[in-house]
Specification:
about 280 residues, mainly alpha, 10 helices, 2 strands, about 60% helix, disordered N terminus
Length: about 280
């Protein structure tokens, strides 16, 4: 471990440091090397060397993106599972998807980008785009399903139950599943909860795509089963996201409780680390 130089003295930052304590050291040190597990806990991404001092100047934007996830996915999950009569494919939360899912995740992703945290930046921005697209599809003025209606001028909502619309929308969910599979592989260098999030999202998108294809074939009962299974996986996604958000918020106020996230950044070593070892 490299020492931290503070006022001429040298200190070490190890895994016993709380997140807020580490950030305080970063703010006062002229040079610093943060252990991989601590950096990953703060930013949900393995550390990459970047120019500038933005990480010492601004706060951690990761909780903003996580807030967008939990505030939009949790109510949608309740709709998918039909709890207390909820349903309608989440149409009641269109404003939530625009105002929380899209907006918060866009903001969080852009701030992560400026800090040089590529992985969380891409994740937050792409999922912000998903929530915007999903909300737009449910919004009548966008005309997404009206184009499939036999009578678009008098009954545009009839298009939402047309087989062509259901089959077409399923391909979007399939693409999201492929995206989550890529994120799942990349997350193996972050932490166990991030891995669980992308694993369950991958399964959920696959099941929900299947539900729409079953609807297009007229198999409503089978589609309901697949939707419920997909909602069950997104429920696990929500639990993991709420936990990570809780961990981040405790760290932001220097709360004396250091919850584990089961760091994986040192379990699977990076390509640059392996290259350095081979040159030694």
């Amino acid at each position: 471990m490299e020492p931290v130089s503070v006022n001429g003295n040298h200190e070490f930052l190890d895994r016993d440091y709380g997140s807020d304590d580490a950030l305080k050291k970063i703010g006062t040190a002229g040079s610093i090397s943060i252990p991989p597990e601590l950096f990953e806990k703060l930013y949900l991404s393995p550390e990459k060397k970047v120019k500038g001092e933005l990480r010492r100047t601004f706060g951690n934007p990761t909780p903003i993106g996580l807030a967008g996830v939990i505030l939009s996915l949790t109510p949608l999950t309740c709709d998918l599972l039909g709890w207390r009569g909820a349903g309608g494919n989440g149409a009641a939360e269109i404003g939530v998807y625009f105002g929380c899912g899209a907006a918060l995740m866009f903001v969080g992703g852009l701030l992560e980008f400026f800090l040089g945290n590529t992985f969380p930046a891409v994740v937050f921005v792409t999922f912000g785009s998903f929530w915007f697209s999903f909300a737009a599809t449910l919004t009548p003025s966008f005309g997404a399903y009206a184009a499939y209606s036999p009578t678009p001028n008098t009954n545009p909502s009839a298009g939402a139950t047309q087989p062509a619309f259901e089959s077409s929308f399923a391909f979007f969910l399939l693409c999201m599943a492929i995206l989550c599979l890529i994120y799942l592989v990349a997350s193996l260098r972050t932490n166990a909860f991030f891995v669980a999030i992308f694993l369950t999202l991958w399964l959920a998108f696959m099941l929900l795509a299947g539900a729409y294809w079953e609807l297009a074939q007229g198999n409503a009962a089978r589609a309901t089963q697949l939707q419920t299974a997909g909602g069950s996986f997104t429920f696990i996604t929500c639990l993991c996201s709420w936990y990570l958000f809780f961990v981040q918020m405790l760290a932001s106020v220097d709360f004396p409780l250091n919850l584990p996230v089961f760091d994986l950044s040192t379990t699977i070593r990076g390509a640059s680390d392996r290259k350095l070892d081979s040159n030694v």
